[in-house]
Amino acid sequence: MAADPHPPNRRLIADPPVAERTPSPPRDRPGAGKTTVCVLGAGHGGSAMAAHLTLLGFEVTVCSLFGRELDPIEERGGVELVGEEVSGFAKYARIERSLDRAIAGQDLLMIAAPGVAHRVYATLLAPILEDGQIVVLNPGRTGGALEFAQVLTRFACPADIVLGEVQTFVYAAEARGPAHVEILKEKFRVRAAALPAADNGRLLVALHGLYPQMEAAQNVLETSINNVGGVVHPTTMLLNSAVLEERAAGADLRFYKNQVTPTIANLVMEPMDREKIAVGQALGLHELWSVERWYEESYRVKGDGLWDSLMRNPYYEGFHASSHLLGYNHVLDEIPNSLVPVSELGVALEVPTPTIDAIVDLACAMCQIDFRKHGRTLEVLGLDGMTSAEMRHYVDERPLGGAARLYGAARRLPWFA
Question: Are residues 314 and 191 in the same domain?
Fold first, then answer.
């Protein structure tokens, strides 16, 4: 039998030359030994964050809603981390299965979980958050902080907190086994914003102690629109399912390097990117990044077009392709929590988003789930019926809900029980 001329791990189109690797941000972090950190989530991202911060000298508590994530970590007392700059065994200060014990007395709560978990975390945290705590969604996807705030208000959260989100997860990381994670890269530049933006100063003071490369965004509309995951992740999963099937059959394939084709990048991702930026322009945002610019700012990788930039990224070589359509939450998370809200904003602001809509509709058909019904609608985000100017004012000055203010005031009275 003749050999297959195109084995599954061979590209039909030559990759561009890989960009040179550059050093990560500095090892020394000013918050080490001063800021206590609770990482909520112990998957790829949460494990990378908790292990890295532990090795940098932070007192880190880890908690997850899923026992299967904590079992191997609890058994070993921490996580084995491998990476370019920092490697070693990270022994956590505390591993907690109880959410209220995990966050008690912590300065900074870093939620490192998919967007589908944000509403759940907000519901559970609302009655137990403490005054002065800073809660950060890593990342917020599109509208994460807005949805989180709506839930806190609904459950009358009494605490005076700072709520923020980052535009992208600070690490490119992937699990390498139970209690074992690799950091492929710590990104060079990440923008973050608080809700309301009036709290940006308080948020960034805390984040700079962990990540000096963090900088203030205009507001959470900017961090939401500059979320590039919705452009890259679900599109790749939905439009090149052959790689998923080959991976399930045992082929050693990579998510970005083998699954993204020039056709997907040029004819689908780039139009989606332009539509997303057009929505941001209609919102009156000042700093809008294309996916190409995001690669340059996050990884210092520059190419000739989106596909070329992606293929040149040396830090993507280690990301394995999934063996099924729902892997990595790229469809179940990014469609309802990244693309649906952009589509809804487009309708409200009269900005056409035909390519984004096509990907949402394809995901709905393939998964037999109405993501538009269950996703982050403008009503879920608290933006329904607003003009562009009203949306900006809302995210810049949004106060804590009235019921929560009343409950918080009453709680501080000596006879309140």
Answer: no
Q: Are 352 and 346 in contact (CB under 8 A)?
A: yes
For the chain, give me the number of helices (H) and strands (E)?
21, 12
Question: Domains in the chain: how many in total?
Answer: 2
In 162-282 the beta strands, taken as DSSP E runs, fall at: 162-166, 171-177, 180-186, 190-194, 214-216
pLDDT (tens, 9 = 90+) of the chain, 417 residues, equals 444 444 444 444 567 777 777 767 766 799 999 999 999 999 999 999 999 999 999 999 999 999 999 999 999 999 999 987 789 999 999 999 999 999 999 999 999 999 999 999 999 999 999 999 999 999 999 999 999 999 999 999 999 999 999 999 999 999 999 999 999 999 999 999 999 999 999 999 999 999 999 999 999 999 999 999 999 999 999 999 999 999 999 999 999 999 999 999 999 999 999 999 999 999 999 999 999 999 999 999 999 999 999 999 999 988 899 999 988 889 999 999 999 999 999 999 999 999 999 999 999 999 999 999 999 999 999 999 999 999 999 999 976 554 454 455 545 555 444
Which residues constitute the domain of residue 91?
A: 36-224
pTM above 0.90, yes or no: yes
* Domain final residue pick, 206, 224, 242: 224
* Pair 170, 297 in one domain: no
Burial class, 198, CB count within 10 angstroms (exposed 0-12 / middle 13-18 / buried 19+): middle
User: Do 248 and 347 have their domain in common?
Assistant: yes
Residue 23 domain-assigned?
no
Residue 191 falls within a domain, yes or no? Answer: yes
In the beta sheet, which residues pair with residue 191? 215
